[in-house]
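Ticket reopened. Same input as before:
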Amino acid sequence: MSATAAPTGTNRLARPTRMGPRTETTLRIVAPIAVGLIVLGTWQFLVSVVGVSDYLLPSPASIIEEFIAYWPSIAQAMLITGTNALLGLLVGSILGILVAAVAARWRPIDQMSAPVVASLAVIPIVALAPVLNSMFGADSQFGRQAIAALASFVPVFINTLRGFRQTAPVHRDLMRASAASSGQVLRTLTLPTARPFILTGIRIASSLAVISALVAEYFGGPRGGLGGLISTSAASSAYARAWAYVLASIALGLLFYLATLALDRLLERRPRERRRT
Amino acid sequence: MRDGSGFRDGAGAPPQPASGAVSAVEVRGVDKVFETRTGQVQALDAIDLTVAAGEFVSLIGPSGCGKSTLMRLIADLDDPSSGTLTVFGKTARHARLDQEYGIAFQSAGLLPWRTVAGNVALPLELHGAPSAARSARVAELLDMVGLTDFADRYPDQLSGGMQQRVAIARSLAEQPRLLLMDEPFGALDEMTREKMQSDLVRISAETGAAVVFVTHSIPEAVFLSDRVVVMSPRPGRIREIVPMRLGADAKRAARTDELREERAFFDMVTAVREALHGGAPVGTGPRGMETR
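Engineering reply: fixed in the latest deploy. New output:
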């Protein structure tokens, strides 16, 4: 997508001219925007000049119109779906880290949890959502939050467990030679070693949480979320409005991803510029 | 428990009573058998070794002779299968918990997310030294290894030699009376290696600590040691212990770079070579030349 297109674009341009770091930064921002504008321009051109029918592909302009017109309902829907996804992400991540810590500590628990996690990983949301919705009633958001938590749990657990296993033998020897207690080993060695793995897991989980919270809304339960509104709008042939909700879903997903990316940067205690000196 | 903030003054009065006469390491009839999938491997067989306080002893031998294993037993990183092993009169485990030794490995083993100062401070931090005493001690140690200007750098910004010096500073943090070093200069180039050896001679003279030094290199062992323990593989045994007679007074302080070019140095290198290759008695002439 545009994010991956940007670096290659700057590299290709940067090589012959040897531009300064500032120009490069500008380009990194401008390039994806340019790509986006070109795509939108072509899209609008296809609809308004070539004449692709509106129900097949609504024009960007009409989608934006709907987006503005329905903003209060969109904002409300983003809040509902966002809350479900956030709660699911938090609970799923915490559970994932805790269970991984236990599995890393006690081998039998690891062996017991392996098949459970493997089956959790392949549970289709489509299959689980109607079941949970009927279990917890039509007016409860719990089923959706549980689905988001389940979807977040798997990548966080797998990555964290892997991270806990990354401690180097020489570091373990050092800790033992220093007569460190197991709490100290966890704090000074195991957790810092696992940190990048945990954060990667949470980053993957953040997108999954939004997608599952959204998809879960297609299968009944209380109305008002983004997923529910997309299906309602599409069912009533309000295609531009459906697209406006899709746009909002993308924005929500990006928001989650960027938030976890920011968390990643924040927790990386080591300042980036120091690496280059 | 030591509080970690008290500084010991060189070779003078150690805090434990009656430890002046106690040898740093005492190994009696130690065997080590590893259980592997293909059966038992005898890594060490009937090892007897005494290292006096303040003495520099190198363990040398081909790969698989158990020299690193022996060091790990002294450090209580592994348990002997049989025999007894004491460090300053205590069991190895007790000595480890009391932080009687400092240890440096072949790879520096620095924590990459900590600065140089943070890495050196790690043992002090783990033992709960107050932060003022800690930073004073870290400054002192970094000065000793000549890395004061690099206190805020991260390990991956340093050369291999500098990382190894950080590791040595870290091993000295608790003023141990015993230093265990497992091929600490193995991965360094020859020039850096000689520089580090000279530094180590100076540091061990300054701290008065006994050193058990595992190495592959004959000249390194000869240059550094009071005694060189020559080991043979499968099963790991001590073949011979060669005392280093270098110069008249054989003082460690006299081990300058000039020593590397003196005749006595080469005689000792030959003696260790002979012990390594043929097991021929030391001083029976130039027979060692035949064995490669």
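Chain A touches chain B at residues 168, 170-171, 173-180, 184, 188-189, 192, 269-270, 274-275, 277 (CB under 8 Å). Residues 61-276 of chain A form a domain with the MetI-like fold fold (CATH 1.10.3720.10). Please confirm and we'll close it.
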